[in-house]
UniProtKB/TrEMBL annotation:
This is PPM-type phosphatase domain-containing protein. It comes from Pedosphaera parvula (strain Ellin514). SUPFAM superfamilies: PP2C-like. Residues 14-234 form the PPM-type phosphatase domain.
Length: 258
């Protein structure tokens, strides 16, 4: 395997409700390996708001933009772990504000309200010594250390059922969630809200190990990461999953592999 010390995979699939209504997939997920030793993995997921006209485009823009924000500083730095250890909430705020400016500029060019680009955003920056997590809106980041799986962030709920916060929200740059875990992690996983019913115990506010742990074990033993990603895509499109959720769904998974 590569010097990254991580195995990773991601998938975003269109929900059955979107298929029936001839709507595109409004989720996006992506990963990038950076750093001089190729041991930092930046992941991003986004779920475009169903009511937003350009939701699918917005989800891709903020995901790619967030990764670029962190890659600019980490890619050539001789000690990425030191950079990450110095990150504060202000750095997350600057990352979000940069994505807001991108959406605001595009909205102005198209003479559309910025709400037409509403989307959530989840970002993780993982190094073997330290991992950071950021989230606006629903979805979840979870991580396992020493065989114990726990939530790092949790779905943000609005005043009404089904309501959440978006990158385009005026308060996004101040109310986002941020988490930090020092030390080696077994695996990291992020999901958009389309998988919350399957993957989270919403009453206990904990991730559901029977959903996540088998995926992590399989990826760790998988020699072909592309094959695993293909299988992950098929799983998210399966009848078993679609019977529980008709929404778009995304999942990113990173497994530490020495």
């Amino acid at each position: 395997m590569s010097r990254a010390m991580w195995k990773f995979a991601n998938a975003s699939v269109r929900g059955s409700a979107h298929l029936e209504n001839c709507l595109p997939c409004q989720d996006w997920s992506t990963l990038r390996v950076v750093g001089p030793d190729r041991n930092v993995v930046i992941c991003a997921l986004s779920d475009g708001a169903g009511s937003a006209r350009f939701a699918d485009e917005a989800a891709q823009l903020v995901s790619e933009g967030a990764i670029e924000f962190f890659a600019r500083e980490l890619n050539d730095h001789p000690d990425p772990a030191r950079v990450l250890a110095a990150y504060e909430r202000l750095d997350g705020k600057l990352m979000i504000q940069e994505q807001q400016r991108t959406l605001q500029q595009l909205a102005a060019e198209r003479r559309a309200p910025v709400q037409d680009f509403a989307c959530t955003l989840l970002v993780s920056v993982a190094h073997p010594k330290i991992s950071l997590f950021f989230q606006i809106g629903d979805g979840c980041w979870a991580a396992s250390r020493g065989g114990i799986l726990g939530a790092v962030t949790w779905p943000a709920q609005g005043e009404f059922v089904g309501q959440t916060e978006f990158v385009t929200s005026p308060t996004a740059a101040s109310s986002f969630q941020m988490g930090r875990i020092d030390g080696r992690l077994d695996f990291i996983v992020g999901i958009t809200d389309g998988l919350e019913r399957l993957a989270l115990d919403m009453n206990a506010c904990i991730p559901h190990p029977p959903f996540f742990s088998p995926l992590a074990r399989r990826l760790k033993s998988e020699m072909n990461q592309e094959s695993f990603s293909s299988g992950l895509h098929q799983l998210l499109e399966s009848e078993r999953v679609c019977a529980r959720t008709d929404d778009d769904k995304s999942l990113v998974l990173m497994v530490h592999d020495e």
